[in-house]
Design goal:
Blueprint (H helix, E strand, L loop, with lengths): L31 H6 L7 H4 L11 E2 L6 H11 L5 E5 L8 E7 L2 E7 L5 E5 L14 E2 L3 E2 L6 E2 L5 E3 L18 E7 L2 E5 L7 H5 L2 H4 L8 E11 L3 H6 L7 H4 L13 E4 L4 E6 L15 H11 L9 H6 L9 H17 L8 H5 L1 E6 L3 E3 L6 E8 L6 E10 L13 E2 L15 H21 L4 E2 L7 H14 L2
Helix pairs in contact: 8-10
Length: about 475
């Protein structure tokens, strides 16, 4: 079956820099750069720089989201060749700690070695093919529960019961096959294929951007997941634009500049959506609303914090001084709160890095937030096929100066009967994600029965989705 490409053949992804940048229509009124220009402290230049790229206006074939044949193309041609976020360092801090990572028909054991390094092994017994592990934990050996073949944490063969019957199997032949491992910013990545760009090349320019935010100094304080009845791409794309907030998340509009958001294409595998907080949505521009009212609404519904971070409580007590904006007042409050909770000097940290949703995406399914507040990290995986996915929401926060680095919290998998709001560790984030769930599931159902079998995208606000599909095509076409 053929799947139409979501772009003109002339506009391939191979050379972003050679593409001519175009300026599509944007929301009337102040834009992202204008909002930043009114702040007390400017963010890093890369946050303000306009790196939008026009990538065409062609429709996307709906079958890409639900057809089993296209899903098989993803499994065969894309997933083995990309770097996948598999674990955080704090998930497995001690020698012998391991994480089982599964995705798209592959299973890996990510194992901390005695010297602190990390290796990834294919999670399959080399005798009869049973998975060696289905959980995460700490082990001195990986023992197959079927016949007792066992391996050491470094992947070397440990024992074969009745070894006399396997004279044809050498220790070298029975070494567990390895996958490639990359580490950056406290994140551990795995890639099945040997060939391809290095992790730093794949992530570019995030390693340069995130030097300031130091995710390696953070630890997981909340980690919740749920199986969603929708294709992994549909679910992920719901978090790649702020366009839907007007209808889906109306409680956020009093302090969210949804239509003021910026959308930048950063490279073949990376893009970003910058959404300002502390400003009223342009959809409410006809209402005369005070800066103090913005602060009060922000204190009620800002969803970036978790129970161990009291920014919402502090925001609710903030009084906007005369001549200041809500963003400026919130910035002052967040600087004081951050210094109190985490230590260090936040006096020259911008409002944007303390307030805004700086949501980066790395192809195909990794989305860390930038900035200095406790940061959300998303991940989406097929679970197990084109009709379901596992969505995960982590929150990472800085380890306060002078305190030991704790182990990350365990994964909390919600049941089918539970909603995201049933995870108290997410705070109001859970309720916001619940508002998205019906959209995702009914989009999956709707695309299957759609008569025209097309998905139309906005040129600006949904350019990240188009960018994702063009990158996907560069893998599928090879």
């Amino acid at each position: 079956m053929g799947f139409p490409l979501p772009h003109n053949g002339e506009a391939e992804m191979a050379d972003f820099d050679s593409q001519e940048s175009m300026k599509p229509a944007r929301c009337p009124g102040p834009g992202w750069e204008d909002i930043l220009g009114q702040d007390d402290i400017a963010p890093p230049a890369f946050v303000a720089e306009d790196r939008y790229q026009y990538l065409g206006s062609e429709a996307i074939d709906a079958a890409r989201y639900y057809d089993p044949a296209f899903f098989e193309l993803e499994k065969q041609r894309m997933w083995p060749r990309v770097w996948q976020f598999a674990a955080r360092e704090e998930d497995m801090p001690e020698p012998g700690d391991y994480v089982t990572y599964e995705n798209a028909g592959r299973s890996f054991l990510i194992v901390r070695q005695a010297d602190g390094e990390v290796k990834a092994f294919h999670n399959v017994c080399l005798h009869r093919g049973r998975k060696l592990a289905t959980d995460s934990g700490n082990a001195e050996q990986f023992l197959c529960p079927f016949h007792g073949f066992s391996w050491n944490p470094d992947g070397s063969l440990r024992d074969i019961p009745c070894r006399w019957d396997f004279g044809h199997l050498s220790d070298r032949k029975m070494q567990l096959p390895e996958a490639n491992v990359g580490r950056w910013g406290g994140y551990i990545f795995v890639r099945d294929a040997d060939e391809g760009p290095s992790l730093e090349e794949f992530l570019a320019p995030l390693p340069e951007f995130f030097k300031r935010w130091k995710h390696e100094d953070c630890v997981t304080v909340a980690w919740v997941g749920k199986v969603v009845k929708a294709n992994w791409k549909i679910t992920m794309e719901a978090f790649m634009e702020s366009y839907h907030a007007y209808v889906t998340h109306p409680q956020l509009l009093p302090f969210t500049g949804d239509a003021n958001a910026a959308y930048h294409v950063l490279g073949k595998h990376a893009n970003v959506n910058y959404t300002p907080f502390g400003v009223v949505s342009p959809h409410m521009a006809d209402k005369k609303l005070s800066e103090q009212w913005i602060i009060e609404e922000f204190g009620k519904y800002n969803g970036r914090s978790v129970d161990n971070y009291d920014a919402e409580e502090d925001a609710g007590a903030v009084v906007v001084p005369e001549g200041k904006t809500a963003r400026q007042a919130l910035g002052d409050a967040m600087r004081a709160t951050s210094e109190k909770m985490f230590g260090g000097d936040y006096s020259q940290v911008s409002e944007s890095e303390l307030l805004d949703a700086l949501v980066y995406n790395v192809f195909p399914n990794f989305a860390p937030w930038g900035g200095f507040m406790p940061n959300i990290v998303y991940r989406w995986r097929p679970w197990p096929d084109q009709d379901r996915c596992l969505m995960e929401v982590r929150v990472i926060a800085r380890v306060p100066e002078g305190q030991p680095r704790p182990k990350g919290v365990p994964f909390h998998l919600l049941s089918d009967d539970e909603c995201w709001a049933d995870a108290p560790e997410l705070g109001v984030v859970g309720g916001v994600v619940d508002q998205d769930m019906t959209n995702m599931e009914l989009t999956h159902e709707g695309l299957k029965v759609s008569r025209n079998q097309r998905v139309e995208l906005g040129d600006y606000q949904e350019v990240r989705i188009r960018h994702f599909h063009q990158t996907l095509d560069s893998y599928i076409a090879d």
